[in-house]
């Protein structure tokens, strides 16, 4: 497979706005991600990072702004159309189907699932079965990669939080994505597996030119893995650049101090559901 040219812009956001009631969760965000890069998106709790992922992946419609992926506008497209273009995401709170096996979860993540078209099994059994076998093999290979192969037959509901994160990563890879957005992929994953996950990312970046945008609170991980860091605060991008520069940026230091927590502190994942009235009062 030919490796696509690096360094061009693959994802570009300009003036993206999204409110929840009176809260401007994303308030005119501007950013770009370079093709083939591992870019970290950081910022204090409530900065708007997850909301931004939800917008880019089509789960929320922005009220304003333009989002382009590989030179084409995606800001009015539904999630499946965006995933089909090769831009996939994982969730801060994992969405594994708990009543299905780990393997089934993987197979369902493949595009053009043969099971969706039952008539094909009747009229073109050979090609459908060949396709199913292909998906099955790929699922197994990827489960090995994320070290869940021994749990392939177990219900996804029995996995630990960390294992579900790995399953999410595996599911994302089933689509052979051009770009993956990962929302706190290391949260709850045991440290040695977390390091392996980072190695996989680097390898995919190397071998396939896959682009990664990852939300991460652990600054050591950020400094280690990413060549570029984008910092959000209060719905806006306040800084972007190489990790060393960003770390010394006074606006970034102020943003973290303003919340009373250090940049290196991990945060408890927030629910992706509306907060109760009391939370915002
Ligand atoms: N579905 C929602 N309904 C109402 N308000 C929301 C919703 N999702 C997010 N918010 C609010 O929007 C703001 C941004 O939240 P978001 O989850 O995007 O932050 P974040 O940067 O991902 O934070 P964290 O690091 O804690 O995950 C917060 O004030 C949050 O309370
Ligand atoms: Mg978040």
List low-confidence stretches.
Answer: 260-281
Mean pLDDT: 85
Distance between the termini: 53 Å
Helicity range of the residues?
25-40%
Record field, number of beta strands: 10
Instruction: Output the CATH homologous superfamily of the largest domain.
Output: P-loop containing nucleotide triphosphate hydrolases
Q: What is the topology, as strand order, of the major beta sheet?
A: 6-7-8-3-9-10
Overall body shape: globular
Number of helices: 11
Q: Quick recap of the structure?
A:
The chain is an alpha/beta fold and 281 residues long. It has helices spanning 49-56, 79-84, 102-108, 118-123, 125-145, 161-173, 191-208, 219-225, 243-248, 250-258, 277-280, and strands spanning 9-20, 23-34, 38-42, 64-69, 72-73, 87-89, 179-183, 211-215, 228-233, 236-241. The protein folds into two domains: 9-96 and 177-268, 3-Layer(aba) Sandwich (Rossmann fold), CATH 3.40.50; 99-158, no CATH class.
3D structure, described in words:
The chain has helices at about 50-55, 80-85, 100-110, 120-125, 125-145, 160-175, 190-210, 220-225, 245-250, 250-260, 275-280, and strands spanning about 10-20, 25-35, 40, 65-70, 70-75, 85-90, 180-185, 210-215, 230-235, 235-240. With about 280 residues, it is of the alpha/beta class. The protein has 2 domains: about 10-95 and about 175-270, P-loop containing nucleotide triphosphate hydrolases (Rossmann fold, 3-Layer(aba) Sandwich), CATH 3.40.50.300; about 100-160, no CATH class. It has a 6-stranded mixed sheet, sandwiched between helices. Strands 2-1-4-5 form a 4-stranded antiparallel sheet, with helices on one face. Helix 5 (about 125-145) crosses helix 6. The radius of gyration is 19 Å and the shape is globular. The protein starts with 8 loop residues before the first strand and ends with a helix. The structure holds adenosine-5'-triphosphate and magnesium ion. Magnesium ion binds near residues 49, 50, 92 and 270.
